[in-house]
């Protein structure tokens, strides 16, 4: 018996040693298989026609280990659109299986840095991978032409490098950069149609993010389903009107209680500038309780909170963050994470929730 055990141990040792010696070949085989699987994956495979919303960034300018900057994916059929594109959003877009090359247009809510700071990365990857013969369309409030022009200018030298390296068939010169489509909307907050394609209609409406003016929310309507994205705003009647009967309201959320604790900590640490910022930011945002009240009055089917302020490094902070929001909204209330996705099949009332990663 001892001899048998010894032989088995020897064989196991030889196998382990062989596997160790073969580790590079094994690693390369796994990498090759993984890349083939990733590049061949269809993010719409097995999905019924419908409208969807996913968070490629559920965070804010505050550093967070698990939430990128503000970024929302809207899918209609097999078409992909973005609302804002904050830091880390392009990477998450790839992790979700959509990728920059599939994005057909971007809708900006406003021009705070955390909502636009990955536009350059998105544009460059879209240019190189989409095969589109025209620049990436970017819709937004008046002033979007200044933002787009600035990014195009900043990447103008890189344009030449990429064309010289990859050639004009891949990096089509006429398709470089972005094209701005500035939109004006009624001052009273009524929605205005700004985009329509293959059954999707997109409406923009004004919200109150003063002193940021104008700032927009968006309505996405497709085959009987409707998603409303608030953008950054204090509680605003225009959001409630736009969200009447919507399937999903994607609303920003800031906990004034937790931000107040941040302000107190900054004051104690003798950081007066930071304390002032913490003092100011609640004045133009919406608390989870206020968002819940808006969703309840509007008769929304689901409330998805995003632009989470402050970061929630521990799940046990979700209770204090929400306060009494769950008791105020009677439908499903979801605290958004990067990768959260909600699907709304056409011709149905179903709401399906899942994680892309």
Explain what you see.
- The protein is α/β, with parallel strands linked by helices and 357 residues long.
- The protein has helices spanning 2-21, 23-40, 89-95, 113-116, 119-129, 144-154, 156-166, 237-242, 256-268, 272-280, 288-298, 318-322, 325-328; strands at 50-57, 71-76, 79-85, 103-107, 136-141, 178-183, 192-197, 200-209, 212-222, 225-229, 248-254, 302-309, 333-335, 340-345, 352-355.
- The chain has one domain (44-355): 4-Layer Sandwich (Metallo-beta-lactamase, Chain A).
- The strands form two sheets. Strands 6-5-4-3-2-1-14-15 form an eight-stranded mixed beta sheet. It has a seven-stranded mixed beta sheet with strand order 7-8-9-10-11-12-13.
- The longest helix is centred in the N-terminal third of the chain and has 20 residues, at 2-21.
- The chain starts with a helix and ends with a strand.
Mean of all residue-level pLDDT scores? 95
Separate helix tally: 13
CATH architecture: 4-Layer Sandwich
Distance between the termini: 49 Å
Q: Compute the CA-based radius of gyration.
A: 24 Å
């Amino acid at each position: 018996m001892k001899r048998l055990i010894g032989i088995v141990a020897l064989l196991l040792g030889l196998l382990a040693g062989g596997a160790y010696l073969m580790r590079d070949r094994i690693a390369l085989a796994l990498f090759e298989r993984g890349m083939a699987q990733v590049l061949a994956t269809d993010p719409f495979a097995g999905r019924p026609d419908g409208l969807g919303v996913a968070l490629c960034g559920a965070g804010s300018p505050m550093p967070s280990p698990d939430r990128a900057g503000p970024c929302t994916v809207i899918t209609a059929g097999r078409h992909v659109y973005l609302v804002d594109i904050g830091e880390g959003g392009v990477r998450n877009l790839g992790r979700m299986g959509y990728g920059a090359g599939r994005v057909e247009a971007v809708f900006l809510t406003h021009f705070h840095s955390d909502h636009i700071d990955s536009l350059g990365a998105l544009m460059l990857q879209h240019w190189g991978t989409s095969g589109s013969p025209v620049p990436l369309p970017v819709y937004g409030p008046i002033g979007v032409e200044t933002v787009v022009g600035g990014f195009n200018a900043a990447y103008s030298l890189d344009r030449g490098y990429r064309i010289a390296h990859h050639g004009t068939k891949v990096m089509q010169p006429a398709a470089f950069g972005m094209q701005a489509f500035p939109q004006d909307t009624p001052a009273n907050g009524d929605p205005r149609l700004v985009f329509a394609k293959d059954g999707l209609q997109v409406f923009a409406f004004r919200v109150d993010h003063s002193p940021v003016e104008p700032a927009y929310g968006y309505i996405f309507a497709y085959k009987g389903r409707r998603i409303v994205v608030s953008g950054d705003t204090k509680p605003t009647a225009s959001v409630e009107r736009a969200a009447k009967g919507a399937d999903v309201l994607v609303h920003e959320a800031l906990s004034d209680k937790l931000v107040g604790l941040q302000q107190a900590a900054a004051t104690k640490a003798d950081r007066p500038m930071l304390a002032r910022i913490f003092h100011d930011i609640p004045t133009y945002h919406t608390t989870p309780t206020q968002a819940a009240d808006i969703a309840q009055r509007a008769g929304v089917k689901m409330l998805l909170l995003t632009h989470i302020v402050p970061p929630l490094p521990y799940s046990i902070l979700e209770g204090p963050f929400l306060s009494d929001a769950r008791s105020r909204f009677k439908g499903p209330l979801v605290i958004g994470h990067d990768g959260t996705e909600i699907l709304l099949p056409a011709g149905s009332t179903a709401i399906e929730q899942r994680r892309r990663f």
